[in-house]
Structure formats: C-alpha cells, structure tokens
Amino acid sequence: MTFDLIIAGGTFPDGTRADIGITGAKITAVAPHLDAEAGQRIDATGCLVAPPFVDAHFHMDATLSYGQPRINASGTLLEGIALWGELKPQLTHDAVVERALAYCDWAVAMGLLAIRSHVDICDDRLLAVDALLDVKKRVAPYLDLQLVAFPQDGYLRSPTAAANLARALDRGVDIVGGIPHFERTMEEGRRSVELLVRLAADRGLAVDMHCDETDDPLSRHIETLAAETRRHGLQGRVAGSHLTSMHSMDNYYVSKLLPLIAEAGVAAIANPLINITLQGRHDTYPKRRGLTRVRELLDAGVTVGFGQDCVLDPWYALGTADMLDVAFMGLHVAPMTSPDDMRRCFDMVTSEPAKIMGLQGYGLEPGCVASLVVLEAGDKIEAIRLRATRLVVVSKGRVVARTPPRRTALGLSHRPMSVDRRFPTA
Ligand code: FE2
User: Fold this and answer.
1) CATH 2.30.40.10, domain 2-51+363-410, yes or no
2) Catalytic-labelled residue, pool 213, 223, 228, 352
C-alpha cells in the first residue's frame, strides 16, 4: 500500500500514538507503524496531532476593520453596534473580500480550518453577503466556511431586515440568525425568535442566534429558542450564541432552564475573549464575568463550543485567529482548571464546535477528511498552556502551512534545558 502522505508517530488527543496514512483528501489508514511508501512523510514524534481547530462563532464581514472609522471608546456591545453602523455604508465588496481572505490566511496558519461566520444582512445592498459568499467559494479547497444570516440591527427593529434575511438565504447563506435582545421590547424579542425558528423550519435550515448577550437577568430568549426548537422538531440543529444573561439569572430559574435547553438539543456557544471585555460594563464592584454557565451547561448534557467572535473589529481590539487563546481565556473565566476540565476546554475549540457545525468526516479515523494539525505540545493541556506552535497544518490531504518550532528559543520546554547560571560577580 502506498500513501500520498504519512504523519508518523504523533500523539492523538486521547493520548494514543499512531501513524496516519493519507491518500488524496482522506485518511486511509491509522496504525501503530505504517511501513509503506509515501509521497511525503512528516515525523510528528513527541507532538500532539489533532483534528483542526473549529470556530463556531465569528464575524468575518467586520474582521480586521479595527479603527475604521474610529475606535470603540466605551468598549460596550452597543457602541460596537453603532460603530459598525457607521462603517457599513463605507464598505466595498473588494475591501470585505480582502479582509476576509487575509483573516482566512491567519486562520489556516493557526490550524483553524472550519469557521461559522455571521454576516450582517441589514445593509439593503447585501454587499457583505455577496462578498462572503464569494470568499466561501474561494477558500472552499482548504477552509470550510458556513454563513449565518445575521440581522445585526434587529429582525423586527430594522424595517428591511426580514426581507433582506430572506434574500440572503435565497442567495445561498446557510443558516438563520437573530438577535432578540436587541429588539425594542422583550415581546418583540420573543416574537423574533418564533418567526426566525419557523422560517428555518420552513426552509429546512439550521439556526444560530445571538441570544441574551446582555447582563440583564430577565433576558430569557434562550427559553423561547429552546421551546420553539422542540415545537418545530429542530433538535440538534439550533445553537444559542453568547447566552451571557444566564450568568446573572436566578439560580432556581436556571435549574429549570438547563433541562429545557438539553431536551431541545440546543447547543451553546460561549465567546470568552469578547464577553469578558464587553459585559459587566455597567457594574461597579463586584463586576460580573461575561460568560455563560459553561460548566452547568456541560453537566446538563448540552454541547458547548468556545467561539472567537471578533478579531480586530468594532467590538474587540485584539485577536490572532488562535483558538488556543480562546480556550485559554474560557478555561480561566469558566473557570475549568482540573485536568479533565482543561482537556474539555481543548475539545470546546475542536470536536465540540465541529458537532455544532455538523462537519462531515471530522476526526482522525480512517475515512475521515485528511485535515489535521501537528502541535508543538505533548498533550491537550500543554497545547493550551503554551498556545502551542502549529508546526504543520494539513487540509484535505495537502500541507497548507508550516511554522518553525519555538520551544528552545522561548524557553518554553517542559524538558530539562541547558541554562547557564554562572552570573558575573563584582
Ligand atoms: Fe457575535
């Protein structure tokens, strides 16, 4: 048997070691030792070999626009939305495409090979929709991009949002979005959820809604989202993004809400980098953490992913497309610090968002798509601790990125190092 590529001797996320044989765009063999011919052989001894990173929540139309036309002075979600509103009329197709493609390059270098991006449909030109549909086609050979029709200015609040959202879906946007906490009243928020879930059911589409991204404990649209998901039989096809109000909710109410979310098969996507900075802005002290109840959702059996949300845009001034940064922040804020919990944080930027996105052939078994990342780390926890270098990134059978090791240069080794402690004396 011959292979196009063999990744030899790497450690899998579950701690086992094996060689991976790749033919074309598929993994065709996994065995302790593949003694076979290969077009290319990569030695991954001592390295973690994982399926690619997955980001189930991003905004690719806004990325890399930081400072245009000005910086978010208050640091709040609402000023970010207003700022994006100022930038929108100035957008051009080419500028959106160029920024998005640049971000995809960053993503590939970081081993991030699947992204679900929301795209704002409230610009009547649908300029960002067309730009990101174009980008989706262009990156398809190496990066899976899903698009969510996102009514940033409110599905009912913005007079043309309903028509625009339908037009975006007609043009090929994959998923129905929403933002019930930004509608003018609780009642309109609830109604927007009902309308949008029904629309998704009628069109046979999935739903991913910005939901309750607020510190207001009475923002309870996740309850409606879960109930409507059950009503329309969309279990397993709906995600609630952010869900930060759950942090501030009454504990008794949450004890009733969690089983409803779990029974509805609604997934949760927390965005720790963004929400730790956006939320709690009206608090004095103590300040609330801007993260939903990750541990409690996991314990209730809900699928939870960590998303990046924003990189260099009106809402967030930092970011590098590194999902290990996201896992690192999520681990701290949740907090999830036992060894098992830290490993789960790695899963929440790999296998769990892959489930949320419904990625076919994700994994390292024979028959899976040959997409993987070789990390300069021995295991999942070390990968998070070091935000480990992505030494080699393989997408659909092809090596698409390489980064030189940095272990010695940065002194990050867990192994004994040679250190000269003879300091000069006076
Ligand atoms: Fe978002």
Assistant:
1) yes
2) 213
pLDDT value at residue 406: 83
- Whether 187 is catalytic: no
CATH 3.20.20.140 in the chain: give the residue spans: 53-357
Evaluate whether 279 touches 244 at the Cβ level (below 8 Å).
Answer: yes
| Local structure of 144: helix, strand or coil | strand
Reported CATH class of domain 53-357: alpha beta
Ligand 1: centre distance to CA 165 (Å): 17
| Positions in the chain short of pLDDT 70 | 407-426
- Return the pLDDT at 416: 46
Give the span between the Cα atoms of 311 and 242, in whole angstroms.
16
| Both tokens assigned to 349 | 């930027």
Looking at residue 77, its pLDDT comes to 87
323-333 vs 339-347: helix axis angle to the nearest 10? 140
- Write out the two tokens for 160: 């043309």
CB-based contact 323:349 (threshold 8 Å) = yes
Q: Tell me, in angstroms, the distance from the centre of ligand 1 to residue 82's CA.
A: 14
% the chain with pLDDT above 90: 94
What distance in angstroms lies between residue 149's CA and the mean position of ligand 1's atoms? Answer: 12
Output the CA 13–ligand 1 centroid distance in Å. 28
Sign (positive/negative) of CA torsion 380, 14, 33, 374? negative
